[in-house]
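Lab meeting, item 3. Inverse folding demo.
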């Protein structure tokens, strides 16, 4: 009897202690956990940690709601690659996250710091499409096996740094602060990884961070907003028409296997690709066509970044019509096979402050296309120029050449020689820049080289005509050369007529001229005036009309002690050639002086 009483008393005391502990634990639980428990029974440890952290009554929350065993994001236990080994207690149901966002009683209990979870496995498809989320969401180094959908959502910020997912759709997402699908900028640990398409078309944020992120195209066709499912572009990251008040960071270990498309984006800061790798062989690797970038387009090293960050693209970097402050490409590598589409294609790009192109490797015939582009200073080096035939700069305009890099006529003519064929505008543009910078001789040298290229494309007749125009008036850019040629021809004619007079092969024309009383047929003949009269087609010095060589006679004369036989027929032939030369040189000289033959 006594033993039974004692046993009953022990049971009563044990039950009382258990009840007391349960009551104590219940009183210590946050209001958010209590509210969630009624709707989501069997909360996991990770879910309780998330709710406890998010409760606005929690004043000692720390940095994250820790789903695992370590609060350190760099701890290997928080690497989502190991998520298959994580216990069930690290699971967080997507329904719970959605409930916190859309339930007005629950969201009222969430602190402005929002949800910040480290190292959890997110179970189920996270779909917050068209939801106005009143607090930030940070799922750091989490495993998110299914595609995330935030289309048309509105929220303060989104941080998925270091997390792994199957894909992300955030079409028209509006994040008032930032979107981070990269690594933690403070620790630079890990990096967001997506095994399928990430689409942020029409999204808005102050900044978009993808630094250290890894993006991969999906083998399955995508039939979303961009409609490129069967285009063959292999899209990995789509930023079509995004609006960023600050920077878009595709840097610092960023890597994409597939196209990154930022066409028509509006970026208030930099498009920073320093230290990025963009891989999509024989296809578009990076595109920012018609983008508006208030700052710089950075692909490679930059003065504000330490070390040799570099840049690599296997495929085409395609930026036609983009408007940017500065194009800054340094220590960059444009890789690809010999027949692949690869290189920089900047047709129509506008870079008001300059185009910097240094220490660039254009492998296997990579193309540099700047047709119709308009930039400020060009700062480059010869080692970064493409192979012959791979430089496209027709209608490319610029204000000059900066720094200590090749800007003289000789060097730049080698640069123009890399074009595939002859285009007049690049020569005119180079001559204009040289002339405006005080190098008139260099400008003329460039324009004469343009004439060489222009006439050489018409075969041997064109080359012969070009040779004549070049040596006589420098294609119209050195018209005074014609005067030197004229002087030389006149002097030769003077000597020829002088010798002909001494040899008595010059006779008066008949019957127009009456023989002089002395019987000397060359009286009044002035060899110099005769040569001038013969050479100038519009001048009459009363010499050529009255005397002409007698082709049927020959004579002998002595000049400086040397005797020579002079034939009238030979002298006549020369004078005919001098008349033709006079007409031709006069016409060329007039055309050169008036600019009819100039091509600038």
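The presenter then showed the designed sequence:
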């Amino acid at each position: 009897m006594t033993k039974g009483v004692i046993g009953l008393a022990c049971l009563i005391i044990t039950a009382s202690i258990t009840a007391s502990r349960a009551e104590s634990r219940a009183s210590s639980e946050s209001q958010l956990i209590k509210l969630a428990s009624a709707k989501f029974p069997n909360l996991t440890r990770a879910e309780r940690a998330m709710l406890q952290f998010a409760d606005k009554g929690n004043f000692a929350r720390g940095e994250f709601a820790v789903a695992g065993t370590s609060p350190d994001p760099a701890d290997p236990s928080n690497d989502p690659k190991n998520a298959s080994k994580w216990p069930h207690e690290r699971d967080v149901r997507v329904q719970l996250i959605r409930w916190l966002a859309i339930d007005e009683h629950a969201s009222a209990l969430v602190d402005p710091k929002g949800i910040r979870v480290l190292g959890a496995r997110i179970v189920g498809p996270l779909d917050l499409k068209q939801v106005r989320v009143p607090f930030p969401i940070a799922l750091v180094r989490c495993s998110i096996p299914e595609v995330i959908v935030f289309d048309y959502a509105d929220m303060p910020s989104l941080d998925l740094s270091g997390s792994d997912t199957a894909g992300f759709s955030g079409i028209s997402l509006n994040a008032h602060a930032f979107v981070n699908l990269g690594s933690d900028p403070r620790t630079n640990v890990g990096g967001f990884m997506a095994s399928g398409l990430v689409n942020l078309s029409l999204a808005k944020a102050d900044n978009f961070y993808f630094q250290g992120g890894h993006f991969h195209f999906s083998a399955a066709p995508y039939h979303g907003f961009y409609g490129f499912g069967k285009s063959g572009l292999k899209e990995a990251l789509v930023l079509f028409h995004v609006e960023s008040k600050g920077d878009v960071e595709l840097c610092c270990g960023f890597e994409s296997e597939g196209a990154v498309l930022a066409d028509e984006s509006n970026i208030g800061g930099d498009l920073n690709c320093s230290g990025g790798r963009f891989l999509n062989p024989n296809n578009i690797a990076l595109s920012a066509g018609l983008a508006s970038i208030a700052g710089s387009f950075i692909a490679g090293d930059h003065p504000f970044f330490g070390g040799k960050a570099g840049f690599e693209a296997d495929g085409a970097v395609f930026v036609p019509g983009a408007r940017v402050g500065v194009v800054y490409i340094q220590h960059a590598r444009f890789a690809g096979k010999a027949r692949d589409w690869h290189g920089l294609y900047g047709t129509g790009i506008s870079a008001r402050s300059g185009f910097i192109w240094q220490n660039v490797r254009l492998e296997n015939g990579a193309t540099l296309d700047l047709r119709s582009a308009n930039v400020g200073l060009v700062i480059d080096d010869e080692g970064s120029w493409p192979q012959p035939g791979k430089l496209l700069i027709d209608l490319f305009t610029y204000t000059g050449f900066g720094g200590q890099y090749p800007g003289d006529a000789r060097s730049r003519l080698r640069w123009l020689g890399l074009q595939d064929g002859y285009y007049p505008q690049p020569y005119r543009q180079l001559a204009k820049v040289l002339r405006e910078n005080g190098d008139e001789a260099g400008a003329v040298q460039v324009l004469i080289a343009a004439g060489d290229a222009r006439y050489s494309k018409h075969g041997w007749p064109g080359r012969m005509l070009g040779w004549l125009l070049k040596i006589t008036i420098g294609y119209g850019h050195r018209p005074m050369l014609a005067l030197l040629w004229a002087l030389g021809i006149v002097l030769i004619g003077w000597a020829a007529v002088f010798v002909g007079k001494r040899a008595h092969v010059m006779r008066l024309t008949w019957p127009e001229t009456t023989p002089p009383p002395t019987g000397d047929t060359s009286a009044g003949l002035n060899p110099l005036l005769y040569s001038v009269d013969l050479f100038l087609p519009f001048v009459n010095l009363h010499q050529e009309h009255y005397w002409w060589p007698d082709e049927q006679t020959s004579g002998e004369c002595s000049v400086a002690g040397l005797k020579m036989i002079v034939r009238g027929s030979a002298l006549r032939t020369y004078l005919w050639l001098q008349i033709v030369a006079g007409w031709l040189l006069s016409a060329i000289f007039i055309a050169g002086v008036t600019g009819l033959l100039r091509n600038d």
